[in-house]
Design goal:
heterodimer; B: Rossmann fold; 2 domains; four-stranded parallel β-sheet
């Protein structure tokens, strides 16, 4: 995704449904959005999805948003390590635990059986 | 438009706890505009329910579809095939759409995913306010385009009441006094004399009196 301003609730949820143990969204620095408020709005959507994850038993702490510029390679690596350590400490997503030995889920769109 | 809001996800999940496959039906009408039951919200709810159930170890199969309008019978039949093997239908329409679905699919359990709140419009993106009381006889021409029926807490026709202070209603400092707004608007229009006319008691027979209302246009009826 080229811009966090385009982050959709469904994209984030889909990552967890596909088995992600954690997801982080890296947006530009606040105040530096090329589209003015894209990253601010993205954070609101990320917070909304965190609430959903709490409600469905996966845990909102598995999703985070960070702000950094594309020139901050060191910070990007630092965040990646921070998030990886957090997810390692949390362990596999409850969805993955439930799936162990169960195969995958079945979702469907526009009338197609999944 | 009709403004609706989603019921808590856990409440909907509890209602379908014994279902293995459900159809979630969004509506591309009012509830899409007020971001409660459009295609996006339908897919989010379906995904959330699937994951919730999988965490519980009871996988749920979902089918999603968004009707052009659930309040028009012609848009319901395209779902005939989809409903055949589902245990329940979750409708993300207003109360009208849910009833149309229930009327066609008589052997299916219909679950409303939304609470239908009011008729209104948006103020800013993400906020909607009530604007019309559906009283059945519009008097906005007498009140400067501001509805006293729904925007005045007492629905009075000859206002303001004694609870109006500094332009706000006595029920809350966040609620404008509709009659202050009406007075200001009529003054700006140079029509304060119209407000001096005493309004007789409203004819409520055109509102909820006599059961469900019906509107008929014989000239557009087919057949």
């Amino acid at each position: 995704m080229t811009c966090t301003g385009n982050v959709d609730h469904r994209v984030l949820l889909n990552a967890f449904e596909e088995g992600a143990d954690g997801v982080y969204v890296a947006g530009c620095m606040e105040g530096d959005c090329h589209f003015l408020k894209g990253n601010i709005r993205a954070r609101k959507r990320v917070n909304a999805v965190k609430k959903i994850l709490d409600e469905i038993g996966i845990g909102g702490e598995r999703l985070e948003m960070y702000n950094l510029s594309s020139a901050q390679g060191g910070r990007f690596a630092e965040i990646a390590n921070e998030m990886a350590a957090k997810i390692t400490a949390l362990g596999p997503s409850p969805l993955n635990k439930a799936r162990s030995g169960n195969g995958c889920c079945g979702c469907s769109k526009e009338g197609e059986a999944k | 438009m009709i403004i609706a809001q989603q019921k808590p996800l856990k409440d909907i999940a509890a209602l379908i706890s014994d279902c293995k496959k459900v159809l979630l039906v969004g509506c591309a009408g009012c509830v899409t505009v007020c971001l409660a039951g459009g295609e996006k919200e339908t897919e989010i709810m379906a995904s959330s329910l699937r994951m919730m159930r999988e965490v519980e170890g009871k996988p749920l199969q979902t089918v999603t579809y968004t009707a052009t309008r659930q309040c028009d019978p012609e848009y319901i039949p395209p779902m005939d095939e989809m409903v055949k093997d589902v245990d329940a239908i979750i409708s993300l329409a207003c109360g009208v759409g849910v009833q149309y679905m229930a009327e066609r699919y008589t052997d299916k359990w219909l679950i409303p995913a939304l609470d239908t709140k009011f008729i209104g419009g948006s103020t800013v993106h993400g906020e909607w306010v009530e604007k019309c009381g559906l009283c059945g006889e519009c008097i906005l021409h007498k009140t400067g385009g501001i509805c006293p029926i729904i925007r005045c807490s007492k629905s009075i026709l000859n206002g303001p009441c004694g609870g109006s202070q500094y332009g706000k209603c006595e029920i809350s400092k966040d609620v404008d006094c509709a009659w202050q707004l009406i007075y200001d608007k009529m003054k700006a229009l140079g029509k304060l004399d119209k407000l001096m006319e005493i309004q007789p008691p409203k004819d409520w027979s055109k509102s909820r009196d006599g059961g469900p209302r019906k509107a008929v246009r014989e000239d557009v009826m087919i057949g």
